[in-house]
Amino acid sequence: MGTPLAGTHSAAAVVTDGVNAVPAGPEHAAALAAFFARAGVPCYCRYWHFDGVPNAWLDRCAHHVDENRDEMLAAFDRGSDEASGIVAERDGTVVGWMKVAPAVSLPKLYSQRLYKGLSVLQGDRDGVFTVGCVLVDPSERRTRVATALLDRAIRFVGDRGGRALEAFPRRAEGIADAELWTGPFSLYTRAGFEVVHDLAPYPVMRLTLSVGWATRPSFE
Questions:
Q1: Nearest to 13 by CA among 107, 86, 113, 122
Q2: How crowded is the C-beta side of 197, counted as CA atoms within 13 Å?
Q3: Contacts of 148 (CB under 8 A, 6+ apart)
Q4: What residue spans of 88-180 are helical by DSSP H?
Q5: Measured distance between the N- and C-terminal CA atoms of the chain, rounded to whole angstroms
Q6: How does residue 105 score in pLDDT terms, banded at 50, 70 and 90?
Q7: Which of 69, 107, 205, 209 is the most buried (most CB within 10 A)?
């Protein structure tokens, strides 16, 4: 079970099986960039903020990876919600990342064909946050790093006055790890998320936070 370190402010870590999960800040930017490079992931969490066509994105990830890296570092420098998320560390080394940002800062996600116009995603969106992506070091997968990230993400949303956290996982048998970049379905069900739109294999999930949620016990 994850337990918070001393302190109740938003920077407090959640420790799960030796993994420290904390809100990412400018002090994590360089190590996070090195983590993406080490994991061989060229997006640097920029997909949802790229305005070009799909082929242009593929070209950038193949030939202009430095642009993605530099944009991520710049987002951290200016304190943008584009760099909002949780970083997981083991023994001082970054081993995981979860993008967690206000839903209004991720219009590209919500404009995807599968989700655009869904009634469950309409209405007042103030206080709604979104899990935009999840990345765990290949050598650390299935060691509860993702659990630590999500546990701290839920507290992070509560600390920021959020009222709900939405997720868009894949749900199907035999999916490769590389296709689970929004997190596995089981991760969210264990944390109490509910399916609010069941379009397999692309369910929409939501966790509604109540007052005092940020201080709740961590989930298994």
A1: 86
A2: 17
A3: 2, 14, 15, 16, 17, 19, 20, 21, 88, 96
A4: 107-110, 145-159
A5: 5
A6: very high
A7: 205
CA 101 – CA 80 distance, rounded (Å): 10
Q: Does 17 score more than 80 pLDDT?
A: no
Q: What is the pTM of this model?
A: 0.89
In 3D space, the residue among 188, 185, 178 whose CA is nearest the CA of residue 153 turns out to be 188
How far apart CA 156 and CA 161 sit, in angstroms, is 9
Q: Please identify which residue in the block is written with the tokens 């809100």.
A: 23
Q: 111-148: string of b/e by CB count within 10 Å (b at 16+)?
A: eeeebeeeeebeeeeeebbbbbbbbbbeebeebbbbbb
Which of 98, 81, 95 has its CA nearest to residue 187? 98
The pair of structure tokens assigned to 139 is: 């050598």
* 106 Cβ contact list (under 8 Å, min separation 6): 48, 130, 132
Distance of alpha carbon 9 from alpha carbon 171, whole angstroms: 34
Strand, coil or helix: 181: coil
